[in-house]
Write a structure and sequence with these properties.
Elements lengths: L9 E3 L2 E3 L2 H21 L7 H26 L9 H22 L6 H25 L3 H26 L2 H22 L9 H25 L17
Antiparallel strand pairs: 1-2
Helix pairs in contact: 1-2, 1-7, 2-3, 3-4, 3-5, 4-5, 5-6, 6-7
Length: 239
């Protein structure tokens, strides 16, 4: 029988914090994302790929930060509608990641394919945003994240690896795999105790997943003579 654990609140002085471990694990994810955002700024030349990667981490971090504070820590003091802020940030972050991968795969596919993927992503992201806000539901965010990270980013990473042997995208794939495990635990509601619920476990796994993806980005952006899709550099320079 599956148990649904309810995490007790704690009080620090006059301040009540609901779901404290869930809040802490959300803040852990946010910290990793902000760390990645600021460190990617130092890598390589400026360009669309770098910009999309940076803002993927920034918006994912903002989603985790607002989710931890508005969706968990102070959930009894704030209207439920404020959870939408976190969900919107998360959707946009996935959109940025997809755009980064589309730019990355550009030398390997026809321009029409790249445009088609981009248009499908814009449509899917707009639909996810609309349904999330209209229904005030987390489900569209979950489905769009699965579509974006597992299907689109996973497929493009696999394609790039098969064509080039890039070690950076291998880390993307490993990170995505960890994220799938975290999402499965969240959806199934598998917790261990009230102090380590399915939310906490999924946040911890997602934090590791995000760090692995960040390491993939650093490899892609920092290896000398790595490929440059924007400048049309030869594809045999993939790392």
């Amino acid at each position: 029988m599956l148990l649904t654990y309810i995490q007790p609140s704690i009080e620090i002085g006059q301040l009540r914090i609901d779901e404290p471990v869930t809040t802490l694990t959300d803040l852990l994810l946010a910290a990793i994302c902000f760390f990645a955002y600021f460190n990617i700024r130092k890598l390589g030349e400026e360009g669309r790929i770098k910009w999309y990667f940076r803002y993927y981490f920034l918006f994912l971090g903002m989603g985790a930060l607002t989710g931890g504070l508005l969706g968990h820590a102070f959930l009894t003091r704030i209207a439920p509608g404020w959870k939408l802020v976190s969900w919107v940030f998360t959707i946009v972050s996935v959109g940025f990641m997809i755009h980064a991968m589309v730019e990355l795969v550009q030398p390997l596919v026809r321009n029409g394919v790249r445009k088609l993927i981009t248009r499908i992503n814009w449509l899917a992201m707009a639909l996810a945003l609309f349904l999330t806000v209209y229904r005030a539901s987390f489900a569209p965010t979950t489905y769009y994240s699965i579509f974006g990270m597992l299907i689109v980013v996973g497929s493009l990473s696999t394609y790039i690896y098969l064509k080039t042997g890039s070690r950076g995208v291998v880390r993307f794939l490993f990170g995505i795999g960890l994220g799938v495990i975290g999402a499965f635990i969240f959806i199934r509601g598998w917790g261990i105790s009230p102090w380590l619920t399915h939310n906490d476990i999924s946040h911890i796994i997602l934090s590791i997943s995000t760090f692995v993806i960040y390491k993939g980005v650093t490899l892609v952006m920092s290896v000398p003579d790595s490929w440059s899709p924007v400048q049309g550099t030869s594809i045999n320079r993939f790392t």
